[in-house]
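Pipeline run #58 for the internal structure catalog. This entry was flagged by the ingest filter as a single-chain record with no existing model, so it goes straight to prediction. Upstream metadata was stripped on purpose; only the residue string is passed forward. Reviewer on rotation: M.T. Logging verbosity set to normal.
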Amino acid sequence: MSLPQKAFKRLLYPADIIAQCVRWYLAYSLSLRNLEEMMAECGISVDHSTLHRWVIRLVLLLGQAFRWHKRCPGRRWRMDETDIKIRGQWRYLYRAVDTEGQTINFLLTAKRDAAATLRFFRKAIRYHGRPEMVTIDRSGANTAALTTLPPGRPDEEIITIRQNKYLNNLIEQDHRNIKRRTRAMLGFKSFRRAQTLLPGIELIHMIRKGQYGHPGGDVLSPAEQFYLMAV
């Protein structure tokens, strides 16, 4: 039994209803009260606070389940950061994609500096190995972080750093999905809540891009792939 299925066993509502509510909230520009009204029209009485607990509880488990079947990305990365508003202040979401647009990794940080960039690359390399090339903008912090990365194994090549603002259009366009969904939320109320919800939004985005590599998922729609993983 998967981790999400174990979590569903302790909840009073049917698993398919919970999974549908969580997916709709992460995938579309809906507030929790919008979702509460939609469920009421379907004859299902559920409070918006309960919906919020479902999302918070399941996003982490779904991320763990997805990681087992995530397709391996390429080794040429495009990295950039975008700003996210939290309690009226701008925070920074570091993201990277490969040359096909597949998401490598992401990390929300309070500051935009070399230390934050280094944390991001260490996390990405821990899950996906060292890249051959990284394309970044002309930020000095990003360059400093890449040059201070510890060396890899003797058989691994040195990471090539390419600085070109215009070659990073791919990652800048990919930011749009995240910005569109978070804009509807009117900003996050806390840094911790943003850390919880952003991985769920990224998860939906990766499934849409075809990064869920489950053996039985290739012929399914993105929604069906989500339910295959969750239920």
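catalog note: The two ends are 10 Å apart (CA to CA).
catalog note: Residues 122 and 150 are 9 Å apart (CA to CA).
status: ready for reviewer M.T.
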